[in-house]
Amino acid sequence: MSDIKVTIIGVGGAGCNTINRLNRKNFTKYNLLAVNTDTQMLETINTSGVFAIGPITTKGFGSGGNPRIGRAAAKESTDQLSKILEGQDLVILTTGLGGGTGTGATPVIASLARKLGALVIVVATQPFTFEGKLRKEYSDKAVKSILRASDSFIEINNDGLLSINSDNKSLDESFKYADNALIDIVEEITSVIADSGLINIDFADVKNLLSKSGKTFISKSKIEKNQKIDEIYSDLKKNLLINYDFKSSRRVLLSIKSNPDFSLNELNTIATKISSFLYDPQNILIGVNNTFHKKNIVEATLIASDLKFSFSDQIDQNDDMKTFSFIDNNQPSYHSQNESAKMSPLLSFKKLIRLPIGFN
Predict the structure, then answer these.
(1) Strands 214-215 and 152-157, bridge-based pairing
(2) What average pLDDT does the chain have?
(3) Overall domain count for the chain
(4) Segment 153-193, tens digit of pLDDT
(5) Lowest-pLDDT range of 34-38, 194-198, 259-263, 307-311
(6) Measured between alpha carbons, how far is 276 from 247 in angstroms, rounded to an integer?
(7) What is the mean pLDDT of residues 114-128?
(8) In the list 16, 227, 241, 243, which could disulfide-bond 223, CB 3.0-4.6 Å?
(9) 37 and 95 in one domain?
């Protein structure tokens, strides 16, 4: 894994929050980059790389909740983004959909990274239903563009928080749960590649699994050794923050961490149950690391891709990126790239891009 270049990018407010949390967890194996149109928000991120996109388009004041502005900002900064993304093997984009910057810029950045040769995975949250039809409309259009621009798309449904959290949970605790879901997914994807084991999964395996795979399902289970092994399968079948299942998946990765006592029969039980759940499995990739330091604990990660409905239900193949445009007369106007707007001192180029030493 040391030779694999990985960049994790948080786009917009929700994405930058994820980067902040990864920073606090000392998630330093890979390049971390926070991308936003709001420079004030970026100034709160101290330890990772930051990039304020669209200085002429937004003057550093944000996108005003307008995806057109977020998209224009990313387009304006394409040259700088290309330099950052060039040579990366894996790019993971994390964002929240329904607003301006994340919704508009994420498809642009994903498409650029993919054109530069990276495997591109997007992990995004959908807005709550109570946030209104406009944000849902923005989000739905972004999903179509993201599916087209990326290799793999993992969609998190924020409404799932309503069924997971009790009335006693505070608003902050509930949002942290969603943030942690994003972080867990990023960690699981990268750990599957990084961990070597008795049955090894390498980056080529993951690339084959997720390349051009569309909508993707991911879940994790952890049980104690004295529990029934079937309980892992029950947990893996569900992820309450993902509102689609993986029955139609044709490519599945099952990664297991265990102690040396983990048996072939236990592996067979889990893998057979997962296989029997699928309509038409084409390839089930299995990895086992039996040097797990937590004794009497078995952890399993399931990544299911190539869902049959992911493109037919979500995308018009004749669409192009031009369809990702939003017209809302109530939204603030923005300056085009052709205008001779000058950047304020806050938006000096050194302030716009700050990459940590060793960012590769």
Answers:
(1) parallel
(2) 79
(3) 2
(4) 998 887 776 666 656 667 677 667 766 777 777 777 877 77
(5) 307-311
(6) 9
(7) 92
(8) 227
(9) yes
**DSSP-derived 3-state class of residue 87:** coil
Residue from 284, 121, 285, 127 nearest 216 by CA: 121
Query: What is this structure's pTM?
Result: 0.81
User: 3-state class of 258 per DSSP?
Assistant: coil
Q: Which two tokens stand for residue 311?
A: 């493109």
Q: Looking at the domain assignment, is residue 346 inside a domain?
A: yes
Write the DSSP symbol of residue 50: E
Domain membership of residue 218 (yes or no) is yes
Query: DSSP letter at 317?
Result: T
Tokens of 177: 């749960």
Residues 232, 296 within the same domain? yes
**Section 101-112 average pLDDT:** 96
Rg (alpha carbons) of the chain, rounded to whole number: 21
- Structure tokens belonging to residue 175: 């949002």
Domain that holds residue 114: 6-194+312-354
CA 356 to centroid of chain Cα atoms: 22
Please say whether the beta carbons of 144 and 325 come within 8 A. no
Kindly report the number of other CB atoms within 10 A of residue 160's CB atom: 20
Listed residues 272, 287, 307: the one ending a domain = 307
At residue 184, the pLDDT reads 77
